[in-house]
Amino acid sequence: MIKYIAYCRKSTDEKDKQVLSIESQIEELKEFAQRENLQIVKFITESKTAKIPGRVEFNQLIQLIEAGEIQGILAWHPDRLARNSIDGGQIIYLLDTGKLLDLKFPTFWFDNTPQGKFMISMAFSEAKYYVDNLSENVKRGNRQKLRRGDWPNKAPLGYLNNKADKTIVVDPNRAKFIAKAFRLFATGRYTYVDMRRFLSQNKVFSRAGKPIHLDSISRRILSNPFYYGLMNFGGELFAGNHLPLISKKLFDRCQKIVKQHSRQENSIKSGFDFLGLIKCRECGSSITAETHTKFYPRTNNTVTYTYYRCSKKKGKCNQRYTPKKELETQMRQIIQKVSLAPTAYKKFLAWLEKDRQTAKLKSVAEINGLNNELKTIETKLDRLLNAYLDQLIDPQSYQDKKNELIQAKAGLQEKLKEINITGNSWLEPFSNWTDQALHAWKTMRAKNNGPELAFMAKTVSSNLFLDNQKLLVNYVSPGWNVFASRPTDAKNSEKNSNLLPDQDSNLE
Ligand SMILES: [Zn+2]
To answer: Compositionally biased, Polar residues: which spans (predicted)?
Structure first.
């Protein structure tokens, strides 16, 4: 009867979860030997890597075979035995010379025939190929990582580096604002200064904790394909494993505007906050601005006035100049209509929180159901394995049934993941909107904040027209319209703002 030596190895550098621990390998081999009626005379375990020859325990194994004390080796898989060309060659040579009579693996079928030896040498080469590939990967460093879809550098704003598994994950605090910045910018109505204001308002700062540089906004954020799933490394694009924050379509739209802006931005005159925001109702030309100085002899004082007027680029137009002050007042009224005073804001939040709780309870019930189903599958898998080990079912049926269960398990896990992601995502835009309404209230009440007024006006309106010194507004989303149609007067906003908009209205 052939005497077998059981050889188990798992090295510390093997991160592969597919490889069983040494304890499990021993268990599996014991069971296997019992089933196959094999006589094991010795167990050898090794925690060295098989990449280089010269493993102590492995050499002992070879010596035992050469001394004729054992004639067979039992291991979990050929790759446990040899991962370098010398070890593999040694084992095949021992088979050739008849000193080694048999190899047994629970996961690999071997027969001591020319075909069998050919197959085992293939399995050894495959193991070697795997090792070679690994070291090649290290050499190639970044490029290899990139090809696999992993980003080798610091995560762009809106993402974080997960130090544990070296992946890039979505930044739960900043990602939504980066995505929103793309959506705002895509409308073509915002400048880089606006974008910086928006990001700062939402506490998205540079790594140094400062407002993001305008150049970074255009180049590192709005022109970075990372946000829709590609990675630009030295001008070369790679597909990334990270979750995209935006669609390619949205990115492309922003690119067009980035190109226009690089020309425009230089020509925008500073100090004119409402430029690029309003069109003339009469002729459709854009509204431009200019200053006039007036000298008052009595006080010996020169005062500068800013006026907005139709640029008359589209031909004849009869519109008069509008003083900046007048425009600003009207701008505040527009914003005031869609603002929420702090007291009303609190009511909104409470209502929202109640809904969030209801939604949460619902998803908890769903999650529990799925978890129970998962447990059932685990139990079935256990029973199946026992049935297989007790030889109640044949390997083929075992594998078929197992695959079926594993697929069902993956399906359930997928569902669980979805619930966790989308959970009560519909509440999110609404709470953003509420925050914005409160912000509108603050903006409307602050003084000397022209740029902020302009930014807010762009946020709440899709088009602003000037007609006989009167600003006409189209609120950008149905939500704002519902809100703006409240009976209200500018002085008494606090009293009126307890009117809640329709819950079903399509906000944003
Ligand atoms: Zn005009």
So the answer is: 495-508
